[in-house]
Structure formats: structure tokens, C-alpha cells
Amino acid sequence: MIDYNRIADAFLVRLKGEIPLVNHLGLSPLQWDGQTLAMTAALAPNVNDKGTGFGGSLATIATLCGWSIVMLYLRAKGRDDDVVIRDSHLEYFLPVTSDFTAKTSLPEPALLTAFYQKMLEKGRARIDLVIEIKQGDKVAMRLTGSYVALEKQR
Q1: Do the Cβ atoms of 98 and 40 come closer than 8 Å?
Q2: For the domain that residue 63 is a member of, what is the CATH number?
């Protein structure tokens, strides 16, 4: 049985070591089940002058959530690839007034298989994701983004 909690905990430690900004976002332990990733963050370190969630922080955490799920997926496949965001579109719907969660899921199996096959064949592949910032069941912000995985040059 795969211990997704252990994998997520180790991944968060790695993130905090490699991306200094992550240490300042108020992230709770990641919730990862092999298909869906949730990153919960405290409002306090991500607040703006109005006392609500700062748009830049929300965008950062949503971007990080998408990047992380691609990294976790590739690591589960035994790969150590680079992942970058290619482009994104942000939509803000509601002010964030308390702690919040960024959540995303891997795409349907056929799209995920095509992504992985392209990685194997070309050493480069793109995957499109939707990441939502939620407070409870309400969507406050949505990031639609394309992430590119690149085989590391040795």
C-alpha cells in the first residue's frame, strides 16, 4: 500500500528546502491521495491591506499546487524531471477571508496516459490543470494553467 501522507510530507520538506518562499506561505501538511492534491494555507501570512487574501499569494499557492501535483505524479512513476508553468489564466470570484485551500486533480486517465507516453517518447510533455482556491465549498479563485515537464539534461 502506498503511503501518500509520507510522500506528501517528504515532498513539502523538499519544497521548503528548495523554494524559500514556501516557508512563508503558512502551508499545512499537504493532502495527497495519488489523484488529488490539496494545499491548505493560513490567511495571516497571505493577507493584503484590506484584510483579505492577497491576489499574488493566491496565485502563487495555486501555481505551486499545480506544479506540485505534476512533480508528485512523475516521482511516483520513478522520474526526476523538471516541471515549469508555461502559461496560466486567473479568475478571482470572491474575497478570501479565512484560511483557504488550493486543490487540483490529475486529468482523466486517457489524458494522463498521453502525457506520460509523450514524456517517454520525447522527454517533454505538457499537461493542463485547473486549480481552485476554496474556502469551504466556495471557489474564490481559479487558475487554469499549462505545465511542461522536461527531462533533466544529464
Answers
A1: no
A2: 3.10.129.10
